[in-house]
């Protein structure tokens, strides 16, 4: 059985697995994000604090994405 390779010489299966891992992490952080957002929403905090939490979590997500996909 031959293994397919992409341009960089990395087997497709490894690329696929790293994509899976990326989406797994993304959904994990998204779940945390929505959990925190819902808690904040139901506590009835002001819009400003919600916005600040939103920015912090987006920064965290961007940091994770940069770890997974080297630029």
From TrEMBL:
The keyword Transmembrane helix applies. Keywords: Membrane, Transmembrane, Transmembrane helix. It comes from Solanum chacoense (Chaco potato). The chain crosses the membrane at residues 12-33. It comes from the Eukaryota. The lineage of its organism: Eukaryota, Viridiplantae, Streptophyta, Embryophyta, Tracheophyta. This is Putative ovule protein.
